[in-house]
Amino acid sequence: MNNLAQESSPYLLQHAHNPVDWYPWGEQALAKARAENKPILVSIGYSACHWCHVMERESFEQESVAAVMNENLVCIKVDREERPDIDAIYMDAVHMMGVRGGWPLNVFLMPDAKPFYGVTYLPPQNWVQLVNSIRNAFENHHTELTESAEGFAQSLQMSEMEKYGLQSDGAAYSVEVLDAMFDRLKARFDEMDGGMDRAPKFPMPSIYKFLLRYYDVTQNPEALAQVELTLNRIALGGIYDHVGGGWARYSVDGEWFIPHFEKMLYDNAQLLSVYAEAYSLTKNPLYEDRLRHTFDWLTLEMRNEQGGYYSALDADSEGVEGKYYVWEAEELKEVLGDDFDWFASLYEISDAGNWEHGLNHLHLTKDIEIVAKNKGVYFDNFENHYRETLQKLHSHRQSRIRPGLDDKILASWNGLLLKGLVDAYRASGHETIRESAVQLGAFLRDEMFKDGTLYHTYKNGKATIPGFLEDYASVSEGLVALYQITFDEAWLRLAETLLDKAISNFYDESDGFFFFTDEKAETLIARKKELLDNVIPASNSILAHALYQTGTILDRVDFVDSADSMLDKMSRLLNTDIQVGTNWAALYCQRVAPTAEIVIIGPEVDDFRKDFDRFFIPNRVMAGTKSTSNLPLLEGRTAIEGRTTIYVCYDKTCQLPVFSVEEAMNLLSKID
């Protein structure tokens, strides 16, 4: 048992029995390195990381390898999900070294925590050789290593404005600029299999979010066609768990066939939002099915008793990647009986396997009804029978040894899920989804927000690690969305409180962006800002959306101005490399056209709101009450003659009040 035994992170606890003398990140380990004048190894990963498990099994669990590490290094293990601030710094460092980043991330530091070398996965013989070389260089070329580490540290401290060449553009928002952004993105579309033209293929929700909003502004059919192609393939392909629901992290191929089997909360949270918006626009029943199925999976496997959601399911079970999810034909025959033949035809199941080692993975490229008709296996009541067959497989699969669960709860990812649940409820109208959203909001408020501080992680009844910008941003955006399906002003005021705290403790007046870490947080070798969107959007872009939404509802001009200022500085980068800023570009779409302010007052406020939510209206905010309210959008407005009344405003200009959703939609259609 090493120094990780008292940690709460599932990833760190996985390594607690390694013969490596691991330490968690902290002063004890750093002081040891200084006192013994040893180089530091910071090894960063996460619990659902397949290659992290492989390197642990091959190297960190081996006594001979551990002996070399313990003799030559001070070894620190970091959960990247628990300490994204540390991960961001050292990931940037290895990129500067010319190393393609990824996890496991192994970075070697001088005793003052400045990096000089980094690698990802290495097999054991190469790893031992590297550790010996590192110690040799530390002893015999110390001056050169010190100079190299100092250079990397200085580069890490470069401002993001300088690094990315950001500056205020000052140009008015225009559809022409949006068209140029779309054209640059379109050049990288995979128009056969969906997504972008690369493999492996990762779901990129902020790209689809931008395309949906761009379509809303321009009605460009190419944008909608690419979204539908991509979402159809992701919904039908092997990256989706046809039996249990939920999406895996990415597809190792370009056809969405075989996934890297871990399931991450952040992917599923964002995909709920995207599929919900796409369903509102297209009414494709496939999208609603995936919403409901994924919600059921989240409820069954990822939710704790208080309403928060766990972080991830591992790719591996019994030490084998994907074993929980794939099938041998013989097993399917035993489970399905008379239903095997038609089911095997649909999914191209065979004794030889449709994947490798005689294994079959469930994967489609077209809607199940079309496939069944094309293969001649469609019959009366097919869809119900098909669902019952999947349920039979699900019940059987439950008896297997399950993948490992990372049961820490992250505020940031739960904030993304809160937004996802809200969007799923809006699109589907299922009250159980709204109830879960409210319960999640209460969990974040009651368990992770203490004495004015939002905490990053929660486990074993305790919230720890003061929140990062990603926590304040994601939770705020989720809360302002939650207000708009409940009209409970407490959620809106909590969002405002979190945004005020972000401005107070994270804001950098020198450039108008926000640091990733609180001004009171542990001092590291650099204080970074996260500006570029990736699989998870940048914390600054999420915050900009939250500031804009909340500021519009509360008439907080400072919030809106802050969002606009950040977007203005990002605009030039969006015009050159749109893929790194699609969540920013989605906000740009909202600023090109006026944002509709929809206010509902009267006894049927919730029924009217629910009716509105059936429609795809991405550029709107909603406020409502049964009686009266002091909120800026509601102040002084009443239910005329006791009838539920709708007020539609934009750019501080209001239309005449109306008394039906149909009339209000007619007003909205006239907004230019």
Q: In what order do the strands lie side by side in the largest sheet?
A: 1-3-2-4-5
Kindly state the number of beta strands: 20
The backbone outline, from C-alpha atoms, is: globular
Taking all Cα atoms into account, the compactness measure Rg is 26 Å
Number of helical stretches of at least 4 residues:
26
Please bin the fraction of helical residues: 40-55%
For the termini, the CA-CA separation is 66 Å
Q: Summarize model confidence as the mean pLDDT.
A: 96
| Proportion of residues in extended strands | 5-15%
Coarse structural class = alpha+beta
Contiguous runs where pLDDT drops below 50 for at least 5 residues:
none
The main β sheet shows up as:
5 strands, mixed
Short description:
The protein is an alpha+beta fold and about 675 residues long. Helix 25 links the parallel strand 17 (about 595-600) and strand 18.
Task: Describe the model.
- It is a single chain.
- The mean pLDDT is 96.
- The strands form six sheets. The protein has a five-stranded mixed sheet, sandwiched between helices.
- The protein is α+β, with helices and mostly antiparallel strands.
- The protein starts with 9 loop residues before the first helix and ends with a helix.
- The longest helix is centred in the last third of the chain and has 20 residues, at 557-576.
- The chain contains 26 helices and 20 strands.
